[in-house]
UniProtKB/TrEMBL annotation:
<dbReference type="InterPro" id="IPR052377">
    <property type="entry name" value="Mitochondrial_ECH-domain"/>
</dbReference>
<keyword id="KW-0276">Fatty acid metabolism</keyword>
<keyword id="KW-0809">Transit peptide</keyword>
<dbReference type="Pfam" id="PF00378">
    <property type="entry name" value="ECH_1"/>
</dbReference>
<dbReference type="GO" id="GO:0006631">
    <property type="term" value="P:fatty acid metabolic process"/>
</dbReference>
<keyword id="KW-0443">Lipid metabolism</keyword>
<dbReference type="GO" id="GO:0016836">
    <property type="term" value="F:hydro-lyase activity"/>
</dbReference>
<keyword id="KW-0456">Lyase</keyword>
<dbReference type="InterPro" id="IPR029045">
    <property type="entry name" value="ClpP/crotonase-like_dom_sf"/>
</dbReference>
<feature type="compositionally biased region" description="Basic and acidic residues">
    <location>
        <begin position="1"/>
        <end position="10"/>
    </location>
</feature>
<dbReference type="InterPro" id="IPR014748">
    <property type="entry name" value="Enoyl-CoA_hydra_C"/>
</dbReference>
<dbReference type="InterPro" id="IPR001753">
    <property type="entry name" value="Enoyl-CoA_hydra/iso"/>
</dbReference>
<comment type="function">
    <text>May play a role in fatty acid biosynthesis and insulin sensitivity.</text>
</comment>
<protein>
    <recommendedName>
        <fullName>Enoyl-CoA hydratase domain-containing protein 3, mitochondrial</fullName>
    </recommendedName>
</protein>
<comment type="similarity">
    <text>Belongs to the enoyl-CoA hydratase/isomerase family.</text>
</comment>
<feature type="region of interest" description="Disordered">
    <location>
        <begin position="1"/>
        <end position="20"/>
    </location>
</feature>
Amino acid sequence: MMPEATRSDDAPATSDGPLLTDRDGEVAILTLNRAAARNSLSESLVDALAAAFETITPDRTVKAIVLTGAPPAFCAGHDLREMTEARSAGDRGRAYFERIFAKCSTVMQAIVACPKPVIASVEGIATAAGCQLVATCDLAVAGESARFATPGVNIGLFCSTPMVALTRNVSPKHAMEMLLTGDMVSAGRAEQIGLINKVVATGDAMDSAMALARQIAAKSPLTVRTGKKTFYRQREMPLAEAYAYTARIMTENMLARDAEEGIGAFLDKRTPQWTGE
């Protein structure tokens, strides 16, 4: 269930529109808000997500982000009705298709580039680009009745852009099975193959995601920021290059004030006081 939020005067929650934004202490909460359309990614929703991450990314008061969907779904992927309407244009929708896929890809990259951990809280279905969203988030918690799929193959549209995030989370054969069959995957199976971190009772995903967000928010923001950036960069490097790069990062990290404070606090058996430097 949604926790009661505490809001600062300069960051009020929005109550309408395709995306709701809220705050609970140091955690930002983004809620896909197209329940009647199962929170499908219309162009307006994609634009709202892009704007939200543009605002949150530099905000030092936000330490973690939880992304969820208004019940009953997390996200059913792209808005197929909007896509079909675009076919009436003289170019049969080409300009719209190019624009929406580029915008969606930009949002996915913004989530990865955001220095704050992004945690998906999933209830209901997460399909196609919705599954892509889950795979793109740094962490994901799902209710046991949640379901995941990349079902484009069933309607003649291979889930090529969702494949990018999916193949960076699960093994090649599991990814290919999802992409080639389009079958729904249970929350338990999604956890087994590495698409999500944890399965909880239906209805408890938000509470669990918020607990995880608060736990991470209590860490040094410098350390978390450094770790997330380094994780994604080294993953694409050859082994020797990755070790050389991470050794440089660890050296710089050791020289940071927060590392000095954290190690000192550990040795002194006291709680560290983070400055983010």
